[in-house]
Amino acid sequence: MIETPCLVDQYCHGTLRTELGLGTFEAHLARSEGPPAPGTTFFDTQTGFAVRRWCPPLLGLEPHCPPARYLARRREVGVLEAGRMLLRGSGITTYLVDTGLPGDLTGPGEMASTGAAEAHEIIRLELLAEQVADTSGTVESFLTNLAESVHGAAVNAVAFTSVAGVRHGLALAPEPPGPGEVRGAAGRWLADRKVGGTLTDPVLLRHLLWIAVASGLPLQLHAGLGEPGPRIDSADPVLLTDFARATAGLGTDLVLLHGYPYHRHAAHLAAVFPHVYADLGAELVRTGARAAAVLAEVLELAPFGKLLFSSGAHGLPELHVVGARLFREALSRVLGTWVAESSWSLADAQRVAGLIAAGNARRVYGLEQSAQR
Amino acid sequence: MIETPCLVDQYCHGTLRTELGLGTFEAHLARSEGPPAPGTTFFDTQTGFAVRRWCPPLLGLEPHCPPARYLARRREVGVLEAGRMLLRGSGITTYLVDTGLPGDLTGPGEMASTGAAEAHEIIRLELLAEQVADTSGTVESFLTNLAESVHGAAVNAVAFTSVAGVRHGLALAPEPPGPGEVRGAAGRWLADRKVGGTLTDPVLLRHLLWIAVASGLPLQLHAGLGEPGPRIDSADPVLLTDFARATAGLGTDLVLLHGYPYHRHAAHLAAVFPHVYADLGAELVRTGARAAAVLAEVLELAPFGKLLFSSGAHGLPELHVVGARLFREALSRVLGTWVAESSWSLADAQRVAGLIAAGNARRVYGLEQSAQR
Amino acid sequence: MIETPCLVDQYCHGTLRTELGLGTFEAHLARSEGPPAPGTTFFDTQTGFAVRRWCPPLLGLEPHCPPARYLARRREVGVLEAGRMLLRGSGITTYLVDTGLPGDLTGPGEMASTGAAEAHEIIRLELLAEQVADTSGTVESFLTNLAESVHGAAVNAVAFTSVAGVRHGLALAPEPPGPGEVRGAAGRWLADRKVGGTLTDPVLLRHLLWIAVASGLPLQLHAGLGEPGPRIDSADPVLLTDFARATAGLGTDLVLLHGYPYHRHAAHLAAVFPHVYADLGAELVRTGARAAAVLAEVLELAPFGKLLFSSGAHGLPELHVVGARLFREALSRVLGTWVAESSWSLADAQRVAGLIAAGNARRVYGLEQSAQR
């Protein structure tokens, strides 16, 4: 029917190199501010059920086997070999890897070799700024080094990503901050800061966004579901409307990550602004059996050339598997239904499936070019 | 099964009288702040696919034929004859036409004759005010002429419509502005204004709404999806709650146009306030293959006597066709499923279908009466 | 297939003891600020259609019979016997009854005997405070009596409920108010108050919430759809994020009632905070034929051990019936589909169904214990 032989995971992280027990594995299935409630488990979530559906068969077990049995088998196989079996079974052919999260995670090179796939790096702006701050003595050197670092990173990376929405909320002033404002904010931040201190200052977050925009590389913005910290409506992508307007026509694409539960807002922005794209990431992995329904909601307003698959996976190769399998099944079901209802032609459905699975990402990130490097 | 032989399009615009090339046609398929992104086309949207599904057969082509082939056929037939074939094939029996948009668009009379249907006029309040301002010398004459114009327009029109939500956002103070406030705002606006200048002053926008309310004619308020300019949440119909409360019991009905992606909010207001109605317009045309799903969401809270069909079409008769066909198919599918599941009786489903397609609009706009004039 | 032999209705009210005419019955089918619009009826709503589907057969009539026929039969049977037939036909095995609404409503004891079920009381905090105010002479005695009343009520009740969200909106300061602040607010409220006057002061509403939190009993918070008064977005459960964070780890569970149309936000909070739960109540009764679709949306993010069935019924035993029947059918359809698609295993589906129908409520409210008292 509707197949997607190529699959570009346009936003994910690496996988953990350490063996995991039941508890540490379970902790990666949810984004919670605490442990599971008494009498409950994170396995009893759409993500948990999706992992139990798709992953056991890749390790030679029956689907939906109990978590303890799956974890035992995973340890028996070993974390490296399990990672190989899972990633190679995911169907993902290219990984774009955000290397900005802490932990003993595999990088793009290892993702590529383990997964028998291509891989490219996405640079997290806030981490870059923190690293520059760790090594810069003065405000002037910090700001100079920051600009150089961003532009230097742009040479090898395929995209920048910003968690300004998670750190401060997306209700940031849309225009670039003035030089004096930036210098003042940098001075205050550096003065208070200990090595490794995180960047949450809104002026510096905006400054970073605008340096990234100037680089011309696509800029991925976290919106909607993300870290549990802030009130979720502070990450409503609709708050990016004025930033989108301010960056229109500059030649840099914006990619709204995640979006859910505001995915219709993200799709709307992708429809209104030529340089704005919407991602399907975390919302599929988090909603599991509902992935097709959520995908269909995104497909209401988002132009078909403006939508990008990702897994948003972090830590567990199981999440890359689940992201890819849920996406493929959801896409095939949704588009297949529309073909069956005569709403779409089969040829159109196949073409659009190819765009969302890989074609749009290749075009936005210039991947064919980079493959030839 | 569930049929709707009468179809009142309770909100649409006229169609363009000029021949269209591929690019100008395509531009009418989206509401974007720019051209399609490089490598993409507005034909690759739900609206584009819906046009390609429903319209080619009306011009003697196979469904889903390529856009260039459809446009070639359209030019071969000629814009007037194509308009006739399309409008007559839409199944719409009455058009309520907002005549307040610029461009070489057909008016209600021409819509009626081209479409072999009835047609009535909807007056756009802001345009009326701008026209009055063009010909009034003083604040006093402007305000007097404005009141007279609104009341005069109410004689022949079936409704007023306001784009205050698009011009300023729906977070307007709910009560009528005081006379001094209105005079001050009018003075400032007229002093700064050049001929043709648009009305965006919130005091005057509210003043207009209240003159319209006093006329007793139904008042249609743009909400949700509309022009791309403002942040979409500034057009959330929930912002009209206090205005709805302020106008309750005055005898004037409010019709919330579009609504999507806040259509559940619009349905809620239609449930809470006896004089508030919800429209199905743009959301069906914009979401295409998802029209049944969106319609079903509106049918969660909206009382069945408070929901009105429209196409929201503008410029292309293809959009009237798509609005009508998507609506009929969606309604038949949604209600038919509920009948098949025994949730609804068939008799109820047929009766409700008739209400949403035409009966509610006839009652709200007094259409039987006007047909007898 | 997927059955739920036990059903704990974790939030409802009693039923009216008086015979009802067509008009008074109809008035209970909607939450409106006025009578039905001219030419419409509240029977033409999802709730009305659901009542006509499920209730006539319990009184010996065919489903979907006309409202007048159903009401005639109901009067023929008599209000007490009809209540018995309806409640016993609902399938509900335990009622948790909020006794804080005015009117001649049955209490938990009568619900238990009429429905051949268990029943427990939920205490409405604001009513309790009003009753204490009616009998307290000074600010000091009011505050002392209030604390004693809440702690006394906690002995026999299974939960507290608060309508702070309906009275003032959920955008309350998250921390407990200071003692001086509380004393000042109490003084002002008591000075202005006549006997029976309602509590809307935000400081006292917060004070009440925090006394309740200290009791350790689960605290149910109204959110989303409720009384028609306030703007619905003032009851968006996302506004409770900071209160949830402030009460984390204190050992008291929060249950977000209703939620719709913000049920995805409620589900998100239930996923993020170990002590937060989400309710399915009013949204199923209000959306009728769409109950399965709405339930499925809640099941996207809500962990399966964090979701609780309720009917939210008030006044009419028909609403308890409809709540229970819609829930069972929706749950069976949604989970059954996922099993059919191989997304879930049948064993998991049956287990999760049991949790949402009864198991989660038993655990949260300690119902097995209380049954043994």
Automatic annotation (TrEMBL), chains A, B, C:
Pfam families assigned to the protein according to its UniProt record, in alphabetical order: Amidohydro_2 (PF04909)
Segments forming domain Amidohydrolase-related: 189-367
The record's section on Gene3D superfamilies has:
Metal-dependent hydrolases
Tell me a Gene Ontology molecular-function term this record carries.
hydrolase activity
Q: What keywords sit in the KW lines?
A: Hydrolase
Quote the InterPro entries the UniProt record gives: Amidohydro-rel, Metal_Hydrolase
Q: What is this protein called?
A: Amidohydrolase family protein
Which source organism?
Streptomyces spongiae
